[in-house]
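hi! just following up on the protien thing from before. the input was this:
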Amino acid sequence: MEYSTADIAAARSLQLTKYIHMSMVTFWIYDYACLLHEEWTFLLRSHWNKMKGLYIVTRYLPFIILATDIYRGFTPNENADKCLVLDNAELGLNLVLVIFSEWFFILRTYVLWNNNRILLAAMLYAFFTFIGASTGLTFATTAPATCTHSHLLSGVPRPLKHSVHFHRSD
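and the predicted 3d structure came back as:
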């Protein structure tokens, strides 16, 4: 069986993306393993409050998102509707992660700058502008069929996700 140049390029792109994801997971697992004792001591001995919840979501949600993305990348999915739902769920989780991470950054910066209200107002303005634009661009420009099913070089059917979500097929 002969493969087109586009098939080979798509397979290489998918392979490179998954190698990058697997290396990130490897470093995260190493980081979690090295700091597990200190982190559990911190989490169990400190009082539960909003900042602790924000920390937990910011610390562990990327690992969950990356693990699900790796799973989806290596699992065949022939149902385009299911693929679109999974893409939108992943985009939503990524948006939640960005919101929580930025909120964590804003609170830390606000405290480090001695509760400067002008700085807080500027950061909140930039934050809400960014979130509004990101939400609009993320969900409004997602193509209805972002996953296609193809046979890669190994002959095993796998989903190919488009790396750019800015093309509409209306």
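The chain has one domain: 5-161.
The longest helix spans residues 5-45.
cheers
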